[in-house]
Design goal:
CATH superfamily: Response regulator
Largest sheet: 5 strands, parallel
Low-confidence stretches: none
Strand order of the largest sheet: 2-1-3-4-5
Distance between the termini: 39 Å
Number of strands: 5
Structural class: alpha/beta
Order of helices and strands: EHEHEHEHEH
Mean pLDDT: 93
CATH topology: Rossmann fold
Length: 149
Amino acid sequence: MTSRVLIVDDEPANVLLLESMLAEQPDLEVKTVTDSRLAEREFLDFEPDIVLLDLHMPKPDGIEILTSLRSLRESLGFLPVVVLTGDTTRLARNSALVLGADDFLLKPLDREEVLLRVRNLLHTRRLYTELASAKEALEQHEGELRKGS
């Protein structure tokens, strides 16, 4: 099963680095956005399973993107966002986490850490979607049983 990864970072070198890290994983389809103004549209068009989001970009920055994607993500269930930044301040980390980031990675990025965290969050997403599908099937089956009685 292929998982879709959306990378939003205004620095082309960071995007290339992440793409090369993720290219080793054959079950990932990667889409990149270097213009943060296009992030929400690409999110809707690409329907990612995880988002890797730079925190500090020209307007809208990562905080604004997290805010704008919040309701979309909630309607989809568990859809993880990993914030990437060189900002080591507590304010940056806490702001991102309060607004719904699921993880926080500091630049320079460690290849193994990126791969492990992405893999773990994608596994959690798969479990969530499987559970949601099973719940829906059960509810449908219960509805059919009620109609039949």
